[in-house]
Amino acid sequence: MSxxxxxxxxxxxxxxxxxxxxxxxxxxxxxxxxxxxxxRDKTDDEVLDHLRAExxxxxxxxxxxxxxxxxxxxxxxxxxxxxxxxxPARRGGYWYYARTIEGKQYGIHCxxxxxxxxxxxxxxxxxxxxxxxxxxEVAGDSEFFSLGTVDVSPDGRLLAYSVxxxxxxxxxxxxxxxxxGELLPDELPEVHYGSAWSADGSTIFYTKxxxxxxxxxxxxxxxxxxxxxxxxxxxxxxxxxxVDLTRNEQAIQIVLGSKITSEVWLLDAxxxxxxxxxxxxRRGGVxxxxxxxxxxxxxxxxxxxxxxxxxxxxxxxPGSWTTLLEGDASSRLLGVDAFADHVILHRRRDALTELAIxxxxxxxxxxxEVLEFExxxxxxxxxxxxxxxxxxxxxxxxxxxxxxxTYDVDVATGERRLLKRQPVLGGVDLGAYTQYRExxxxxxxxxxxxxxxxxxxxxxxxNAPVVLYGYGSYESSMDPWFSIAxxxxxxxGVVFAIAHVRGGGELGRHWxxxxxxxxxRNTFTDFIAAAEHLVKEGWTRPERIVAQGGSAGGLLxxxxxxxxxxxxxxxxAEVPFVDALTTILDPSLPLTVIExxxxxxxxEDADVYEYMKSYSPYENVTAQRYPRILAIxxxxxxxxxxxxxxxxxxxxxxxxxxxxxxKTEMDAGHGGRSGRYDAWHEIAFSLAxxxxxxxxx
Length: 697
Prior knowledge:
8-stranded mixed sheet, 12 helices
């Protein structure tokens, strides 16, 4: 597929051939014959046998990379401080943190009583440590383990935690008495992510999902009882629900939201059996978030500005909004954190994130004071800040060359204190790497940011191997981040680049709007433009580019494979959303109706149907030559079903000139393997394949 001649990979192995069992799909006068829809049923032995055959073929085709995979795994392991702990965060009379232990797959959630003003040091054992929850003990022998909530009651007596042992994102919630270590008899099955305690710790609120995996109900459980009470149910299938306790512990907040509309209800946390009150009834296209500021509410909203404004509202009249900060066309207001004496703004400007302090004054709030940083490319984000009366603000900082760092800033003085920086072991010289920001030109003339990182000694001679990463959906921004695993690419001469394509949120709300619905193709052409830019500017050549993306980013991978296969030497598509039209046409499938405000409703709208059909990767596979492709999926994924990449791979083999592999995790969900060592092995698998495709194995 390129002139790089990747290492011999046992091409004598025979690829599985999926049986063709055609069925017709008919909408808006269009008939599509689907030969591989039968692969959807994961209880069918024929389907499972086919997936196992694909795994065996992939194993055979990549067997020559085993030593490289082991080398990469060892590099990740040797560079990671495996016995480590997070920076303790204060809540009430305790510092809370998580620790890891070398040889253990999962984290351990701990706390220690407050003794002094500063958090305990993170470079050793902490005297008086209390283990609240050991993930390794709870996981036991299960192949998969995930926590949906870890929530301590306001008085510090009880721990609510929920566990998923399959990867299907349905959890069982339990309550633990932290004084005795005993589990209470309360056991709540089939719950969703999150939880919220009442102020007195007598009651816990949680959410449940419907048959389409949509969180649609909020329930109230009073400890020691068996009859839970339904608090809020959302019948509109476009909306989902969530619940949490405000930082000042005054209100239970119930959030109902679709992709473009919000509605928030508040319930007095001291009266858990009371009735919730709506802040503002939903209005189509208006999104808002509520932050309880003690004596008032702070509302982040887009009712009068695409990039969101900030308003205040009285507690007794939450719908009466007074503008505090007007919307700004040059910056996107992402949200606010309110405290007794100050407010922190979280914003996005010039494809970078920023934090700004607003101190309380007698008349309200002072002007925002932006926290400045020296690195021109970086990511700054809110940290864990549980204390209402805290005078310091915890935030995280990273870049492509700076490991994840935790800071406290003194709100009164602006003085910062570095509490922890992610250790990188093994003698790594971080000064050997450098980062760049370049701007490509999209097909319609739009300027498109690209973030890059490489070793300083990588020559810009048109021959550098490149891994180009992209996502581009849901206004999710791929802000620059540091990765220990990525060093295994960089040290072998690879340039890692992020294409900040439209459909994400890097440049504000318009950046998102210009890459969704009937403008979705911009996401794909932007990514191709980024690849072409790297060639034009002398970084590389097409066959030396491996594209990578997951989930909706996997849709991006499938689309660019069809549109510009000659632009890439390889493609890694992780849990890829490559059969988008089939999924979005079926409202019985998980999350489909919710997704209509992202992609459009092809079931009712013929124009949307035609547009989605024009780019949905599975339906646009043609008899052309494709780059090498590695597709990775999970059997228990409830967000992007395994059937999508399974069908895609089957069709690529049947009709195209395609060297394609499918790897299915048989005991995992959307996020892949759950244990950290298992995850490192999976990362090593992908990186080894990328290096092989780039001729570096």
